[in-house]
Design a protein that fits this description.
The structure is a single chain. It is built from 10 helices and 7 strands. The chain has helices spanning 8-19, 34-48, 65-73, 84-97, 133-143, 162-176, 188-198, 209-218, 231-238, 243-251; strands at 55-59, 76-81, 102-105, 118-124, 144-156, 222-227, 253-260. Strand 4, helix 5 and strand 5 form a beta-alpha-beta unit. Helix 1 (8-19) runs antiparallel to helix 7 (188-198), helix 2 packs antiparallel against helix 9 and helix 9 (231-238) packs antiparallel against helix 10. The mean pLDDT is 90.
Length: 264
């Protein structure tokens, strides 16, 4: 029996720890081509400018995919994740690549860093898992330096547009005929746990870009921009997915939000 002190945050940590072993094997998580790598570099360069050795915090860094992209650009990177299993894989990958990334165990909603510690904060697919988004955004503002930049890369993975619904129905039809799927779907148990966790989170109805941007602004950020120009990334990812999954990737509500901490 789960003890009374076992919280939703603990459940989320265990879920991602179990995903760690195969995390990099899924297109959209790991980097599968040089074209995708360059597309990510382009997104970060567009919103962050030259790295010039500035400090960057990769929140919920997982196996270190985004951390390594930032390191390649010349940022001085810290990766923070509270799944020890994810961190073990991130550190092993970093050792092989001889990177300068510092990986630390920690909660993205309760960062144990001093005020104004980082020039840049980047998150990828973290927002939907936040238990207290407003408090998290305020915490991210706190640890950014004045004039520092936040990049939130996320999407609404709950609501489906008309085109996406048509593609999903096509995929279901192909699966029934034994022609669908590409081995990247979650197993029954993991899928059910994913649904259970999502149902108890603030963004259970979908993390729409406008809603997230409004909350980021309420936390005190300024110069907020929603960037939906992620086509180069999604096209590169789609090449390593089934036809239907690749089409879905390119029509989903996915975005990057750039925000800046005001200079006092």
């Amino acid at each position: 029996m789960v003890g009374a002190n076992y919280t939703l945050r603990d459940e989320i940590r265990e879920y991602w720890s179990e995903r760690a072993a195969t995390f990099d094997e899924s297109p959209g998580h790991g980097i599968f081509s040089e074209s995708e790598r360059m597309a990510w570099h382009g997104l970060f360069a567009r919103h962050l400018g030259p790295a010039e050795g500035r400090s960057a915090l990769d929140l919920a860094s997982g196996t270190g995919v985004v951390s390594h992209l930032l390191d390649e650009l010349g940022f001085r990177v810290t990766g923070l994740d509270w799944s020890e299993t994810m961190l073990e894989r991130a550190k092993a990958k970093s050792a092989v690549r001889k990177s300068r990334i510092a990986f630390r165990l920690g909660d993205a909603e309760r960062i144990m860093e001093e005020d104004a510690s980082f020039d840049v904060i980047v998150t990828r697919h973290l927002v939907w898992t936040l238990v207290d988004p407003a408090a998290a955004f305020a915490e991210w503002l706190r640890v950014l330096k004045p004039g520092g930049t936040l990049i939130v890369i996320d999407g609404d993975f709950v609501n489906q547009g008309r085109i996406e619904r048509l593609i999903v129905r096509l995929e279901s039809l192909l699966a029934r005929r034994g022609r669908g799927g590409n081995g990247t779907a979650l197993s029954g148990d993991l899928a059910e746990r994913h649904r259970s966790i999502l149902a108890r989170l603030p963004f259970r109805e979908g993390a729409r870009a406008e809603k997230v941007a409004a909350m980021v602004e309420q936390a005190g950020f300024c110069d907020i921009a929603i960037d939906r120009r992620l086509g180069a990334i999604h096209r590169a990812q789609a090449r390593h997915m089934s036809l239907t999954r690749g089409l879905v990737r390119q029509v989903q509500h996915r975005y990057a939000i750039r925000a800046v901490k005001p200079v006092d």
